Amino acid sequence: MIRGLKICGVSDPKTLNFILNHNHKPTMIGFITNYKKSKRFVEFEKLKDLINIDKKKVKFVSVLVNPNDEIMEKIKDFHFDYYQLYDVSPERTQEIKSKFKKKIITALTISNKDDVIRYKDYSKISDIILFDSKGYDKSESFDHSLLDDVPSELNKMIAGNIQIDDIPNLKNKDFIVDLSGALEDQYGKKDINKIGKLLNLFEKV
């Protein structure tokens, strides 16, 4: 059974309010905090206002790529439940977790088995291991069968160009599902109709 649903790359109040007021809310919402190359990046002051809201029991995730101390200090009092970390060593991950007292999602970008087994370096530090594609801000896929040998007891999440219609086929998987690009229009903006379809579909799985 799918453990949860994360919608990533939310960047505007209209979309956020739609999700938070939906009858079938996701488990998590992700916000791109420091990766300026992403079209989903949210500037600091805008982000501060955007997430200063009743979260309706949805967990907020700050998505960070190799964050320095400056950005960590700037966001330390924001209403985030998790930090999702890309390109961060196990030692730095432990440092961030200890210093800022947040739950950690370690994001590993996958193209082969060697990439997958890196989870062992983080499994005792991180609260969730995210297996993602190499695309970062681009919605690219990877072969999810590479995860077949990952222990079921590992609290894990998968991303990488997952489509809305893929959800029923994932119903027997024991991970959190993370969608972003599949929920956008041709201009790269979040599409409320697609998000609504996802949330209604996920509730039935």
Helix-strand blueprint:
Elements: E1 4-8, H1 13-20, E2 28-32, H2 44-50, E3 59-65, H3 69-75, E4 82-86, H4 90-100, E5 103-109, H5 113-116, E6 128-132, E7 156-158, E8 176-179, H6 192-204
Parallel strand pairs: 1-2, 1-8, 2-3, 3-4, 4-5, 5-6, 6-7, 7-8
The tally of structural domains comes to 1
Give the beta-strand count: 8
What's the CATH class, please? Alpha Beta
Q: Architecture in CATH?
A: Alpha-Beta Barrel
Terminal Cα separation, in Å? 8 Å
Apparent shape: globular
Unreliably modeled segments: none
- Strands of the widest sheet, in order across it, are 1-2-3-4-5-6-7-8
Please estimate the helix content: 10-25%
Order of helices and strands: EHEHEHEHEHEEEH
The major β-sheet equals: 8 strands, parallel, barrel
Multimer state: single chain
Structure description:
This protein is of the alpha/beta class. It has one domain (4-204): Aldolase class I (TIM Barrel, Alpha-Beta Barrel), CATH 3.20.20.70. The chain is built from six helices and eight strands, in the order βαβαβαβαβαβββα. It has helices at 13-20, 44-50, 69-75, 90-100, 113-116, 192-204, and strands at 4-8, 28-32, 59-65, 82-86, 103-109, 128-132, 156-158, 176-179. The protein has an eight-stranded parallel β-barrel. Strand 4, helix 4 and strand 5 (103-109) form a beta-alpha-beta unit. It is globular and about 40 Å long. The model has no long low-confidence stretch (mean pLDDT 93).
Short description:
This protein is 24% helix and 20% strand. It is an alpha/beta fold and 205 residues long.
